[in-house]
Amino acid sequence: MPAVPWLARAAAAHPDRPAVVTAEGAPTCADLARTAAAGAGALVARGVGKGDRVALALPPGRAFAEALHACLWLGAVVVPVDLRLAPAERERWSDGAAVVVSEALELAGRGPAPAPAGPDHPVVRTHTSGTSRGARPVTLTRSNWEASARGTAAALGVHPRERWLCVLPATHVGGLSILIRSAIHATTAVVHAGFDAAAVRRSLQEDGITLVSLVPTMLARLLDAGLQSPPALRCALVGGGPVPPALLNRAREAGIPVAQTYGLTEACSQVTVSAIGDPSTAGMPLPGTDVRIAADGEILVAGPTIAPGAAGDDGFLHTGDLGSLDDAGRLTVTGRMADTIVTGGENVAPSEVERVLAEHPAVADAAVFARSDAEWGERVTAAVVLRPGMPASPDELRTHCGQRLAGFQVPKDFDFVPDLPRTPNGKVLRRALT
Q1: Is 1 within a domain?
Q2: If you count Cβ atoms within 10 Å of the first and of the last residue's Cβ in the chain, which end, N or C, has fewer?
Q3: Total tally of structural domains belonging to the chain
Q4: What does each C-alpha distance from 249 to 20, 107, 223, 239, 311 come to in angstroms?
């Protein structure tokens, strides 16, 4: 049965509850519903209709939240665009969009009535963080998001005055899910424009934050900034990469209740969540989610959060990650089948960085790999073979990459080597480089 947008339902149930808190203000559910309707009217004036894609090239904040909900109000498909990417890559993400919203929407007038949507209606077309094949688009439906919200609520609970702090990029599923889940549950999303350890520490100590989503690097920096026993915090949800046991111990000693999570874009964010305060594994699958381990160790996932078309012929999403299940059914992620580097919660495809390095005139050959790093989890490292008589410094190569890649993709270290180890058929032996 078609249903009205989540924000319309939230406004009817809790009109005076803050819907989103940003540096620009804290509109209530009723306020945001009015601006969503007005924003939907602005999109209609630009030729957007139900089912059309709308690319949101906006930084996190109130304008992003208003545009997001305007799209959902109209029944358009949200396509968040990562502004950290190079222009050509941003254009690729926006390909097929009816319009690109790069400024706050005009909010004059009442706008149209909310557009009902069925469970299989596409809601968001987002991109994976990037694998060996690079970032790929994934379309998620209304029912995917509702199943994810139900599963997360069952695992973590929902406080009637929940305030979920979002410091992750809203262009990826982890950050975007905070805004959408908050609308589904009629709770409050507190959105920061980025991650600043001092500002996040103050918010956790002073703003009544009950939940926060972090990657391990963020948790480490908060501990370094002196975070201690946030008074209202129920859980710091940590995912996006391996969480070192020493970091979990530091968090426990600092009085921070941590839960570890494992998820993917194709599974609408979370797949498993540990019990709060017991983050030694990635935890149990969300209710309704089936997690299995294939004979080769690959993690397989099935259930209502899986994006249409993402599952294989066997009905399971083949994640490309390796893991194990203990006797209680708790997941431990042990590695990746591909060579993807996870650094600070962001995925980096070595082939993309290698391609950029090869564009430098002094580079004859290059291989990109990960080194273990206490701060970043994994450190992007490049082994470079220079052309004879053509020197290049690490700073020069770093600048070259920084002009063509997002900051998290730029190698932090450069090893200059005479040649690269390869298999007989010419493939680089990355494991020999670490």
Answers
A1: no
A2: N
A3: 2
A4: 32, 48, 11, 16, 37
CA 14 vs. chain centroid, Å, equals 28
The tens digit of pLDDT for each residue in 110-136 reads 889 999 889 999 999 999 875 345 678
- What does the block give as tokens for 116? 């009902």
Which pLDDT score is estimated for 220?
Answer: 85
Q: What is the pLDDT of residues 43-77, one digit of tens each?
A: 999 999 999 999 999 999 999 999 999 999 999 99
Beta-ladder partners of 137: 127
CA 259 vs CA 150, 249, 283, 324: distances in Å:
17, 12, 8, 18
- Does residue 408 share a domain with residue 302? no
H or E segment to which residue 379 belongs: strand 377-386
Question: For the purposes of burial, counting CB atoms within 10 Å of the CB of 13, is it exposed (0-12), middle (13-18) or buried (19 or more)?
Answer: exposed
In the block, which residue shows the tokens 């708790």? 330
User: Looking at the whole model, is its pTM more than 0.90?
Assistant: no
Residue 53 lies in a domain: yes
Q: Residue 35 is encoded by which pair of tokens? A: 């601006």
Give the pLDDT confidence of 328-366 residue by residue, as tens digits.
Answer: 999 998 767 777 888 999 988 787 898 899 889 999 889
Q: How far apart are alpha carbons 133 and 224 in whole angstroms?
A: 35
The total number of residues written for the chain in this structure: 434
265 in Cβ contact with 127 (< 8 Å): yes
